[in-house]
Amino acid sequence: MGFYLNSTAAYDSYRDLCKDPYFVDKSLLLTDILKAMRTTQKYICITRPRRFGKSIMANMIAAFFSRGCDASALFQELNIVKKRKKIAREKTDMSEDTPAKLDYDYLERNLNQYPVIFIALNELPRRCSSYEQYIDRIESMLISDFIEAYPDARIRQEDAVWDALKKIYAIYGERFIFVLDEWDFIFHRDFVADRDKKSYIDFLSNLLKDKQYVALAYMTGILPISKYSSGSELNMFAEYTMASEELYSDFFGFTEREVDDLYERYRRLQSHPVVSREGLREWYDGYHTKAGERVYNPRSVVLSLLNNNLGNYWTSSGPYDEIYYYINHNVAAVRDDLARMAAGIPVPARVQEYAASSMRLTTKDEIFSAMVVYGFLSYEDGYVSIPNKELMDKFDEVLMKEPSLGYVYRLAAESEKMLRATLAGDEGQVAAIMKYAHDTETPLLHYNSESELSVLVTLVYLAARDTYRIEREDKAGIGYVDFIFYPETNRRDDGIILELKVDHTAEEAIRQIKDRNYALRFEGRLGEKAGYTGRILGVGLAYDKKTKEHTCRIEVLRGAL
Predict the structure, then answer these.
(1) pLDDT tens digit sequence for 196-252
(2) Which structural domain range is residue 472 located in?
(3) Would you list the DSSP string of 277-297?
(4) Residue 510 pLDDT more than 50?
(5) Residue 115 included in any domain
(6) Nearest-5° angle of CA 32, CA 34, CA 39?
(7) Mean pLDDT across the stretch 463-488?
(8) Does some domain include residue 517?
(9) SS3 187
(10) How many CB atoms lie within 10 A of CB 126?
(11) What is the pLDDT of residue 529?
């Protein structure tokens, strides 16, 4: 047992995770890994945003294969073994050489039977200030492990890692499983120059490519390898991303069904549950696999249930100044689309995931590509969008903080005043703020439709998201309402139903709210928010394209309780 070779660290980490009250068993990933090992496709690279379970799966794979531990008891309780046993019992006599028994035997033959080299590539040597220090640590520790484990190979400290492995293969016949977690970590370090990146790619290529001692090479990361391996250095890897490949997609992030199961577990374990199933969907859903299945951010779901609170967990763990970092590459190109996405409107984009690995992002498509790869945006059917409330809050913060966003920033700055005027029933002030918004430079808002007007309304009510959950086109009464503001932090706050009209009057907007009984939606929510005592306000906003006038009507649809 060494530092990288047959270490128990991955097993210990995964065993501890299995004891977590909200552990999700994704051990069936090993089924696909074992199938790949039977073919020539033994080089696998999984890329996902931060906090989507990549390291957990890497630990599981190392724990399963490594001869440095005995994981049989652990995996006997997981689906990879339990489901295979069940199938074998139901379909055949386990004493016969049938496919079910042979499949189970193949699983048993591979459990803890390989020398595993597990490297967490996001670890740095002490006071690391150069690529040479980083890679020397990895190489020297690997050589030390080999010298101790394979004395007959006569490995020298100055040997190249791949030469040492060739000696081991020649003398011992060993074939290794490589698990390399966070392969792209080094590219995010300031001290790494372009020549260092090339040296690193050459290191991985010399270590893994066309080597008989490789039984499996499994890598994880955020960035796809295609940008950095422009030639044939790492072309042996098949890359599996969230947006482009369906295979392995079930094993990273939580599916709808898995979150349903977790929520039922939460209700049993938590004596006073305050997190709603709808809240989990609103806060942490919004991603999509290639096949269109919905995916939740797993870290945030687990922390929300553990803490009995809907909050911003995933985004607090990463450098979320990056959101503005990417936007700042070309504010003019992305500003209008940011306003649309803040209003919940997906925008078209040509997402090329390789573009995210370039630090010279200039076009809108390159910027959005980078933000998809890092998980800040979701991509589906040619459109990008802000996936959920957890991220929407961060985008709102950027829109309200950055003067470089021009009119978007200036309109967002009016949003606190707009909310106060609405709650006070000050129709004149509301109309005046709308006029100010219209007179401000707003190139994307031509008021040709109510959907364009809704983008403007989103900006001038942005501050309301601190205390309200705002839903657009929500089913209410016998129709669809443009906006409903649900109080989230105070049961005495007023609820708001807002209807927009272009070339119709504000009175007509109010009449539609009443005639279609949109307030029923609020009435239905009263049971969900015990003790809610606020009023329900109807707000009609209208714009006349001929007169260029904005008008507002505010009525109390239901008084305070």
Answers:
(1) 999 999 999 999 999 999 999 999 998 877 666 666 789 899 989 877 778 898 899
(2) 414-558
(3) HHHHHHHH--EE-TT--EEE-
(4) yes
(5) no
(6) 95
(7) 80
(8) yes
(9) helix
(10) 6
(11) 52
